[in-house]
Specification:
Structural class: alpha/beta
Number of strands: 7
Order of helices and strands: HEHEEHEHEHEEH
Distance between the termini: 22 Å
Number of helices: 6
Radius of gyration: 15 Å
Strand content: 15-25%
Length: about 150
């Protein structure tokens, strides 16, 4: 897609190395794991959230991390964190459920979404995220991901 071309162009511009695999569309971490057997990279889960003030958040964590929304709300000072709705995600990030990842932040032109990276993401040699389509998965190292999010 044009969006993916723009994403990979941006990553090249930043000299961020990635590796991408195509697979059937997946909608869960379990399905992604099955589709990527043998790939030496850690799976991520990405949660699109909103708070009581309708602020938007994207939480990215290693797939087996338990995310306690109550504790997270207190830690980031955002009352009432809960899952955001699909229409708002499409409007702001231009992705649908199952495709959200930190790569979608490039579509957040109003800078409405705050990204939270779990510390374990930063400790991994590489982490897999969907590059704006759940029919692909892209491995990226934490320094590259941080460079992308800072650009």
């Amino acid at each position: 897609t044009d969006a993916q071309k723009a994403l990979f162009s941006k990553l090249r511009e930043l000299s961020v190395e990635t590796r991408t695999w195509q697979h059937e569309a997946v909608f869960t971490v379990e399905a992604m794991d099955a589709a990527l057997k043998g790939v030496d990279s850690v799976l991520a889960k990405n949660l699109f959230l909103k708070d009581k003030k309708k602020n938007l958040w994207l939480v990215c964590a290693v797939h087996d991390t338990t995310v306690d929304l109550g504790k997270l709300s207190k830690a980031v000072g955002a009352a009432g964190l809960r899952f955001g709705d699909a229409d708002r995600m499409k409007e702001v990030l231009n992705v649908v459920q199952g495709e959200v990842s930190p790569f979608a932040i490039m579509n957040d032109t109003p800078n409405a979404v705050r990204v939270i990276l779990d510390e374990r993401i930063k400790e991994q040699p590489s982490v897999l995220f969907h590059p704006l389509s759940n029919s692909y998965s892209t491995a990226i190292a934490a320094p590259g991901l941080l460079a992308f999010l800072s650009a």
